[in-house]
């Protein structure tokens, strides 16, 4: 009976079946770097560090972070400079976070857009 049910579903596993429901699977992180320096941005999550990528000075970029419900902080690694961490934000798939990196990165704040 189980084999018949699986073959009727195309042999999908339960995890791929759940993803096929059309729900969001990622978190969007919009970054506005108002600093003149290039930066590397890893996300610090409950699952450990997740690399987002690099952003140039005085530029904007959107990053995508795959995963589920998580507490997220962003580490700001200034090229040839200091490192800073944002405040933590709880986020779930489908959420959009905004990170404005101030000219003084110490004043940077991560928010969830509603």
Task: Walk me through what this model shows.
With 114 residues, the protein is mainly beta. 11% of the residues lie in helices and 50% in strands. The chain is built from two helices and nine strands, in the order H-H-E-E-E-E-E-E-E-E-E. It has helices at 2-8, 14-19, and strands at 26-33, 39-45, 48-55, 59-66, 70-78, 83-85, 89-91, 96-101, 109-113. Strands 2, 3, 5, 6 and 7 form a five-stranded antiparallel β-sheet that branches. It is globular.
Structural key phrases:
mainly beta, five-stranded antiparallel beta sheet, four-stranded mixed beta sheet, 2 helices
Short synopsis of the structure:
By secondary structure, the protein is mostly beta strands.
Rg (CA only): 18 Å
Largest sheet: 5 strands, antiparallel
Low-confidence stretches: 1-19
Structural class: mainly beta
The total of helices stands at 2
What's the total count of β strands?
Answer: 9
Helix content: 10-25%
Broad shape: globular
Order of helix and strand elements from N to C terminus: HHEEEEEEEEE
Strand content: over 45%
Q: Mean of residue pLDDT?
A: 85
Give the CA-CA distance, first to last residue.
46 Å
Note the topology.
Layout: H1 2-8, H2 14-19, E1 26-33, E2 39-45, E3 48-55, E4 59-66, E5 70-78, E6 83-85, E7 89-91, E8 96-101, E9 109-113
Parallel strand pairs: 1-8
Antiparallel strand pairs: 1-4, 2-3, 2-5, 5-6, 5-7, 8-9
